[in-house]
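step 4 of 6: structure.
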Amino acid sequence: EAGVAQSPRYKIIEKRQSVAFWCNPISGHATLYWYQQILGQGPKLLIQFQNNGVVDDSQLPKDRFSAERLKGVDSTLKIQPAKLEDSAVYLCASSLSPLTSAIYTQYFGPGTRLTVL
Amino acid sequence: GIQVEQSPPDLILQEGANSTLRCNFSDSVNNLQWFHQNPWGQLINLFYIPSGTKQNGRLSATTVATERYSLLYISSSQTTDSGVYFCAVEPLGGGSEKLVFGKGTKLTVNP
């Protein structure tokens, strides 16, 4: 079974530029999550999708971050404009829907390491 | 919001030693997962364990939900066990399935 795919793996940009990350979840997983992991900390949820609807985006800085999952499969996360403090690893995870499965383990992709100069 | 505390923050072992990592959480949870983040940054699922005890090879985990803690046991440690171990919980009644992570335990296993 293929895991969660993410691209690119690394990205270096200058502040005020824009950047986009892509995620393809495990086949059949209705729930998709984007997390931000700053160096030395645990991941923090930015946004959760159930199919193509947003379940939780309470910690997403909406003035600069946006995310979409138009067809309920792939997702993109965009930052525009980037700030120095956005330097982090952006992790995508997916799980079965908790609406249909009692066990909904989250599986993580390899992440995208973003450096903002 | 819920607080997740992991201890110890750092642990250095010789190969072959055993260890216990602890995770305390401040409120009731729906879900608890243990992850290993390897030196390349990949988060690898170890256990989905909101309650009870599970074992997988040299690793085992126990969650006592009523007392709000979970333990991860590593026996006969190997150098490949090095990395950061995270405990993550899904708060009960949180409205979403987001995981709240602790700060992790950094494990170094020396040959």
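step 5 of 6: annotate
 - The first strand of chain B starts at residue 4 and ends at 7.
 - Chain B is about 0% helix and 60% strand.
step 6 of 6: archive
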